[in-house]
Amino acid sequence: MSLVSLRHLHAFSVVAATGGIRRSSDALFRASSAVARSVTALEASLGVLLFERKGRGMLLTAAGQLAKLRADRIEAELRDVRDDAVRLREKWLEKAVDRGAASNDRGKFSGNVGGIEALLNERRLQAAVLLAEVHHMPTVAHTVGTSQSAVSQAIARLEDMLGQPLFLRTAHGMVPTDAGRRWVERFERVLAELRHIPEDIAALAGVVEGVVTVGALPLARSQLLPGAIAAVLQKHPRLRIRSLESPYEE
Question: 170 phi and psi, to 5 degrees?
Fold first, then answer.
């Protein structure tokens, strides 16, 4: 299942906050027509109307209210990532000044921290999350169905925006930095929120769908779990269930 577009979701969120396409276009620095296309594309991908178009503005539908809750959580996570990057840069500059470092040496920090726009790309966040898990860029490229250079560019774009490396190249592969590890955890939460939006909207119509992940011991996975899965899928055929088996110690 493809993820909801973060850029479309951001445009939707601003329209919901301002109450109209025209007012939101100023906040987004985008043409009204482009904002309207983003909202329409989001509605098409979810299969529901998110707004009631009224003369007094655009009012959220029940589905829109659910999407807005998720959008708010997503943007809070991304703002926290940016704020953390800003704090790290300020701390680095203070230490550089204390050491009496030359101004050109201070500039070796990757650059100023940008806005969250570069983070509004679900494929970039997916690439970072997968790379933190497998430590191998070709594997990430194969998993997401793209080229290694595209994955490299996605990581580089995130690093440019955040002003420092997310990963270090080591003998054990690409390993997250301390900051990268913190940020990847937030990216995981963002992607989880995105996955839940269609599930929330389906639940409005009384349909239970989505992915259930079950951690199980070997014995339970071979004897108890198959029957439980079959019973649940009989009631809710649109669910997808995956199981992870590990020994007791894990």
Answer: -130, 180
